[in-house]
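Q: Okay, next protein. This is Glutathione synthetase from Populus tomentosa. I've checked the sequence twice, so it should be correct. Can you predict the 3D structure?
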Amino acid sequence: MGVAYSSLLSLSPCTTTIHITGSSLFPCTSKANPERVINSIFNHTNNICLANLQKPSKKFGSFSRFSQNSTCLGLKIVPLKCCGKVREMETQERILQKPLIDFHGIDEELVQKMVYDALVWSSLHGLVVGDKSVQRSGKVPGVGLVHAPFALLPMAFPESHWNLACEVAPIFNELIDRVSLDGKFLQDALSRTKKVDAFTSGLLDIHSKMLEINKKEEIRLGLHRSDYMLDEQTKLLLQIELNTISASFPGLGCRVSELHRVYRVSCATEFTVVKSNIGTCTPEAGSLLNYHGEHIGLDPRRIPGNTSVDKFAEALAKAWTEYNRPRALVMVVVQPEERNMYDQHWLCAALKDRYPFNMQSKIDKEGEILPDGTLLVGGQEISVVYFRAGYAPTDYPSEAEWRARLLMEQSSAVKCPSISYHLAGTKKIQQELAKPNMLERFLENKEDISKLQKCFAGLWSLEDSDIIKKAIERPELFVMKPQREGGGNNFYGDDVRTNLVRLQKEGTQEDAAYILMQRIFPAVSPTFLVREGICHKDHAISELGVYGAYLRNKEKVIVNEQCGYLMRTKVSSSNEGGVAAGFAVLDSIYLS
């Protein structure tokens, strides 16, 4: 087996180039924290009661901050973007979560020592990204490295909700697979969107061509991530979105878990995560809490092990095995300029270390399909195509990229994701699946259906005039989402009202490009955020992503499991949550 790591890929019977350009890494939602009392809740029945919702209130942050001039070993601990002052934040004591440690009494010198140790550890253990101030940092490995933004301490998360997120991961995996097989459902559900969204239209055109030739994906591989926030008012774990393409940070997410608490695994080939029995592994010397946990009252064993990068590598390797051509390559399609390349390299390194193959750094050659469906790139057969790009319009700057994507779909190579898996992860499909009785179309087990429905936030089409009226009246309770991945695309607050009113006045079909989602309000916690060597203290909220792997060959399910997690933490006043965009940091969870 081999890995082909491609950023400029030419794939057509003649000459077609897929040139993957830059884009944001991933989305996050939800701004905290309007105070509200909800009579029932937003739920999968998509009912909303506005009469019992109170207006947002504002007050100052209620925990102390270090002086902006405090230094130790050349480090600063400062308020985030506060210019030495306590910044006014939207928060209230009712939803301020009890912190893991006493932020009033924590010793400043201890924090500075922990920050220093964490920065050293990150540099030595590959918790790094490309430095945006260095021109070539996104193109040449090893040039312009800086530590990835991270939380100094893990974020508290209820163990019962952690167990639930792990439990539903295989059910969501199975759901995506079954939805992907229902071509008519995908085409019908996205038919209005296709008329006003050129990117979605391009994806649907490829999908339609596969339906026309009756193309069957006998080997289907999905590497997913389902993102959640824990709603403080209802205590429900609500799904933000389900990512079916380019689920990022399996590599660096593991590094942060190791930073906070390194796990020693007894067998190199066994990566099973025991959800509840968190005492099965012992912390290794070198982890942050192993050194400092006693001083701050935290037990490193309360941080679950994180094996997402190894599980993803294992699933890719098993897909290669099912393809059953020993000389074939696994090809990773990436953007040509990618500051997050080290997250991708961690995955390729896991493949290389655990499985017998030769790794190639790049392939910039022509591709073709043989009469039997074999995909060749530069004369080498490709068994698995793993997309870490191709999820945004900017990844297709010309028709050449679309022809390349079509060529890959027409081939017999295993696609991760296939075009149908890709479409199954769109916002519109998420909204359609949340409709009453829709899950019954794809799943038979009533208990499984019930578990998934409890995770659904309120989701609505913009064809619903009643919900549009309510969203215009109370826009702070909604998020307006287009069919996009990568973050920075959503509308919040007054922008929701402005755009809904504009769409009503214009009377076009542009409303089909969006959905409305209930805004989730998680609890706020004080925390330390470390970015570019500086530690900021602020109120923050977190988003849990749970990875899932699914591999099927015809009727045989080979892999269907939860395989690690990603915790991202951002300041509570921020709408967006992209790590690369500067809004959020990587984190781990502390089971409470």
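A: Here is a summary of the prediction. The radius of gyration is 23 Å. Confidence is low (pLDDT under 50) at residues 7-94, 263-285, 358-364.
Q: Noted. On to the next one.
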